[in-house]
Amino acid sequence: MIIEEVMNFDDEELQSIRFERFTTIQQPSENVGPTVELKGLEAFMFNAQPINESFYQDPSVSAPPEWSKLSVRKKYDSTNKKVMDDHNQKYVTKFNNLRKQGTSKKAKRKRDPEQDGSEERNRKVIKFSELELHQIAETTVKTFVLEFPINESQEGKVNVPIEKLEEVSDSLTKILESTKDVDTQEVANLQRICHKLLSENIEKIKNDININSFDDIANSLVIFSQSAIATEVLLEILNSSIEDKSLFWDGYLDSAIEFVTLVFQDLLLPISQFSMQESAQMEPLKYNIGRLFREVSNLLRHIGNYNSKSQLEDQALTRIEILLTQVLFEEKYQHDKKSMLSLLPMDSIKISAGLVFVDIFRSCKDQRPYLLNELILNFPKLSTNKANFRQFKIERGFSVQYFTVILVKFIQSIESEDIKVKDSGFEDTISICDQIAVHLTTITADKFSPTLRTIFDFIVEDLLVLLPYPEWSAVEFMLTSLAKQFLSVLKNSETVLQIEVYFLEILGLICERVVSLEKLGKSESNDDIKEMLKDFNCIRFDRQNSLQSLRSRWLKSTVNEEIQASFQQALEFKFQSSDMNDINKVHPVYTSFILGSGLNLICMNFLDSLGQFLNSPKVKIRTKAVKILVNISEVKPNLFRSKKIQEALSARLLDASPLVRDAVFDFIGKYVQAHPNEADNFCAPLCNALGDTGISVRKRATKFAKDLYPKLTRRYNKVEVACKLLKRMDDEEDSVRNISISALIELLFLPLVSHSCTPEERVMTISVLVDICNSGTKVLSNLEVLLERHVLNSPEKGVQDAKKKLIELILEFVNDESMNEKVLFKSGALLLLASCVKSQPNIFGQDQLIALQPLITDEAQTIDPSYGYTLRVLRYSLVHINSLQPSFLVPVQNFLFKRLSKLTFQELDEAIPSLWKLCDMNSTKPRMINSVIATLKFLYPYIENKQRRHEKGLGKLLQLLGFFGKYCNFQEFYDSFKNSGIGLKNNESVVSLILKYIMQFCDDSTEIKNRIIAISTLITVCTSYTKLFGSEEVIKIFDREMDSNDTKIVMAILRGLIDFLNEKDADAQKKAGYEEKSSADNKLDVRVFHGISSVNAVDGVCAGMVQRYLNKVLKLCLSSESQVSYLPIQFVKRALELGYANPKMCIATIMALESSNNEYIRKTGIEMHQDIYEKHESIIESSYREGVSLALSSKQESEILVQGDFFNLLYRIVSGSVSSSKKFMKALGKGMSIISTKEKDPRKKLVYSVFYANNIANLEFKSMEELFIITSHLRSYLVGFTADTSEEENVENSSSRNQEWLSIMAMMKLYNHLTYKYHILDSHIDDYDSHASEIDLKQTPKVLRDVKIDLSWIVENVEGENPEIITKCKEELKQLI
């Protein structure tokens, strides 16, 4: 019609226009291309009117000659492609150059003012009135109906161009704006035309269209587009306010629904099957398909609107519901990056589908159960891909999933209805939310899997994101119901642990989100409410319903007329723009509203009851509860002030599980960071964590110590933390060791040279180091290692500066007269200085040594306990000094010679090597020789007169002689000794002579104290001359004394041997460098044990001494006197560390040590056991029974009857390995069998049976298989005993017989205890024995009843004199059967 108007328009100026016809050659060849075929709108316009040839003029174009003269200079062969290409390229280059020149900067031509636009020359804008537009629209519809008439008898097909359909559709929209004067007959005719067209196209789609290629898509788009417009016409009429019922025939709606269904099935679904590799072929079609998709989304909305106005028939409603469910939730309609649908506007379709889905729920109450059921059934089918999952972008700027949107809108639909009910408390809303929560949690629990967990996580995350925004007010109801359901599940004792942990985690996330809203503050002013409502002016999606839902909630809690007016004004406001000033703004007035709701109340109750979860018997629950506490405390710091929480956390610091302890410590770390003033209160937990058995706990604690230490204000706390860090230098885990070393350097040394460190802080640092030196030999040893390996020899400049400052400050302290009053501090300072000098002698030069002279030569200082440390400084500083000033050397030398007889054993150990060095410097060694000769002569009378061997002076002479022999090389002065008349023979070494003198006092004729000194001195000399340990005379002395019953002498020998091993290990480390941890890590030449290797001869001597006396020492380890066993245990431990002892020989004794009541002995045994297990696991597996037997034989009966943790200590070491755990359990089972069958003493059998029962009952089984191993052994034994005693009627009572029965009763009680505690049935054991168990043997046994085994009656009757014993045992046996 538009074309007709244009063609009929008459204008002289227009008629004078002529168009030049396309030029063609006069002699067309056969190579001329085919005529271009027009399609669609272009073809329609081209064919609409005949072409008037008068409008064109034909140009005269002649055919080009064979030699076309394209240039004035050359001839070109137009048929030669290469010639023409070269010519063209030449002129293209030429024209490009000319174009560039033409675009160079030139003065712009000024526009002629006369040509400026004026009112007369401006384009005239013509505006039509509403009435005129309405008339045009009516004319268009009438013309359309006349042009495409439909008669009832007419069988021909309707062929309406798309342009006509679009025109009439637009006109119809204009007409239906006002239905007062609408010609219903014309509308009805239009309906019939469009319906006939639609019906015909539906048949074509069903029968003729089969999309397998992109050409098929292109060919089908016309039909689909034509049908979409026709459907829209039908639906617009159905949704109009025309009252003529003849227009509302259900067939129209059925056809519309059928067409929409076909679009999804026959177009959208095939498109989704195409590969993204073919996306280039989709590009030309994207526009038309996208336009069609948008039209289809409008059709869905029209259907939804019609249903809201006039509910659809059940059949139609069901069809549309199924279609919407498929589009929204089925995977085939997901438009991820791998699908061709991602190139098309699927969002518009899904948004419309979601709105229609919600509209049906809102308007069709009878359909709500079905729709809810469909929504929940599709919950497990949701995608776990984040890119696919969250495809609905809300106005706030972030995306959520369609499932969440529909879920919330369902609830809002009911929420907005509750306001109509008087005195309603939103019971319907709460009820529907509770139903949904129950269904979702049930599905998740019943079919729990990583996939389902991810889906549920996404839903909860969406709800938590939407919670603070008022347009999603129903989220608070949904989260409240979920929280209630989680708590309900957690209270159910039969819930699977995995589900409990997961729901507890989700509940923690909800609480964390709610608690975080408190930070926004509170507000309830009217102005703030109005500000909040302004957000709705920028919301497009489901705006009215969202606002209505919020209004229903808000007005239930207030009667403020101003607020009501504000809500009404917001409802009447029309959408303007989706651009918010702050799209993520959270309004405090709305968060205050949420915090006054039931959700906040549930969260607060949960936080109050968090202590119960912290005390749960289940490790994973406790761990998760602590982690929740950590997260919530970050947004609510005052949470830790709760007494219940504090008590529960304190208990968890001692939890049996390292996972729980690690989680608690993580919480403490974060809490202290936020509250540095409370750092000292957490020093004890930190120190416990630094010694924890769990690697992860120690690692976290070590890192935390680095942060906590500077915040500590009490010195003793700093010392405690530093000592624990020093002990971690021996940690089995490399990362813990490295972190500890780094922390110690940063905390104890670098502050000395830090510019930010005050003098008081430097004094504090030195004081801490001094206190560390006074904290024990183990800590001091590690401090020396730290100094030697990582501080004093460090190449880093900062550390180098720190060590110089350290020595400077220590000297200031030790020379400070005020320090003389602080004896302990002065002693520690000198010990620290001695450790530094010992670690690196060249750090202490002559100047510093001279500064120390008053402390060396002052008579008053010699009575100070710290004098030995002063001498140690002198000894090691002289190592690198070759000459000294006489003013220092002579006084010091004279003073030491004068004091030799008065120095203690430890002081002599430092003074003798110092004197030998000083004598070497000033060439006065003969003076030292004379001292040695004098000492030998003083000893001679004691050799002749054995009656004097009790005198005190003998011991001092022996000590002097021993250190002379150890540190001084007298062989070069052989003649002096030979001529002194002290008995030196020809070719005899001076050391041998010294040794002979000492051995004279190692027999029984010498008083015990002096004999101990003599033996210790003998070891001292042999330490420097290790081959002497192999001499027959020395070995005889050691053998005799080790076989004696005098424990004091044995202890002296062991102490000397331990010092010998330590000294040789230190020498080995220095020789090998610091890359090795100790000589135990060096490769040992085993040939030295057989005397055929001279390499590592020292190792051979050490190993020989250990092997010779190991069995005797192992027996001493199990001594009933704890004081006696300490040194033997240390000897065994050190021998194992250095690799000189056979672990197989020691392991049984070590296991027995773990049963000791002495905490130190037990702890040492556990450490040795763990070390051997890590290195020699297979050795341990065959030694359990022997270890248990040794433990039983070394203990008193009273101790055996009450001990219950021994097996658990052994089990904790091997529980990390499945195979080792099983072997341990089998060893226990066999041990019970051996005791029951081979032990002849009835009393011992009873006592041992009680021991086994008590200890096995307290085992913390890690797997069901371990539990079945024990119960299977028990049952086999008890069944055998039942068979043996079934025929006994009258049994004579005797104590031995009673004890036999009591031992059986102990085993029965153990069996009953295990089966009752873990709910083990006989059928379960049968299945296990037959290898047909359906129970997962790897799972941890679940404690159903936390009970303790009661053997008190058996213990009370251990004598076996009670005549009722057999009767009661038989009753127990019958109950078992």
Q: Kindly name the structural category.
A: mainly alpha
Report helical residue fraction.
55-70%
* Number of helical regions: 64
- Beta strand count: 6
Distance between the first and last residues' Cα: 103 Å
Biased composition (Basic and acidic residues): 111-123
Main location: nucleus
Region (Disordered): 93-123
Domain Sister chromatid cohesion C-terminal: 1102-1276
Outline the structure in words.
A hairpin with a 5-residue loop joins strand 5 and strand 6. The chain is an all-alpha fold. It is 65% helix and 1% strand. Helix 29 runs parallel beside helix 31, helix 60 runs antiparallel to helix 61 and helix 60 packs across helix 62. The longest helix has 26 residues. It has a two-stranded parallel sheet. Strands 3-4 form a two-stranded antiparallel sheet. A two-stranded antiparallel ribbon has the order 5-6. It is elongated, with a radius of gyration of 50 Å.
Question: In a nutshell, what does this entry contain?
Answer:
The chain is an all-alpha fold.
Topology:
Elements: H1 2-8, H2 12-15, E1 19-20, H3 40-48, E2 56-57, E3 67-68, E4 76-77, H4 81-102, H5 130-147, H6 162-175, H7 184-207, H8 214-238, H9 250-273, H10 279-282, H11 286-309, H12 314-329, H13 346-363, H14 368-377, H15 386-389, E5 392-393, E6 399-400, H16 402-418, H17 427-446, H18 450-466, H19 475-491, H20 497-516, H21 526-533, H22 543-556, H23 561-572, H24 588-595, H25 598-608, H26 610-614, H27 619-635, H28 643-652, H29 658-674, H30 683-690, H31 695-708, H32 715-727, H33 734-748, H34 759-773, H35 777-791, H36 797-814, H37 823-839, H38 846-851, H39 853-857, H40 867-877, H41 886-899, H42 905-921, H43 925-944, H44 952-967, H45 974-978, H46 990-999, H47 1008-1024, H48 1032-1043, H49 1047-1072, H50 1097-1117, H51 1122-1138, H52 1143-1153, H53 1159-1175, H54 1177-1181, H55 1184-1193, H56 1197-1202, H57 1206-1214, H58 1218-1238, H59 1242-1257, H60 1264-1285, H61 1295-1318, H62 1322-1329, H63 1352-1356, H64 1365-1376
Parallel strand pairs: 1-2
Antiparallel strand pairs: 3-4, 5-6
Organism: Spathaspora passalidarum (strain NRRL Y-27907 / 11-Y1)
Subcellular location: Nucleus
Main location: nucleus
